[in-house]
Design a protein that fits this description.
With 63 residues, the chain is mostly loops. The chain has 1 helix and no strands. The chain is elongated. The protein binds zinc ion (ZN). Zinc ion binds at residues 26, 28, 31, 33, 43-44, 46-47.
């Protein structure tokens, strides 16, 4: 019985390769944006961990 459980792990090589290649998608949860073959990031443009230049929240509503 135990023998059937063991060894069933290495079966089925449906794992996507790790290299940057064809058909990679954004690593963001639920995002299916295709990544460029030359884009080594894990996220698409929208989810890339970039620091957005925070614009000063200066509201000019003086009157
Ligand atoms: Zn994304």
């Amino acid at each position: 019985m135990a023998d059937t459980m063991k060894g069933a792990k290495l079966r089925g090589g449906i794992r996507p390769s790790r290299k940057y290649g064809e058909g990679r998608v954004c690593a963001h949860k639920g995002c299916n944006t295709r990544l460029s073959q030359y884009n080594r990031r894990e996220y698409c443009f929208a989810h890339a961990p970039v620091r957005f230049p925070r614009v000063r929240g200066r509201v000019v509503t003086e009157s």
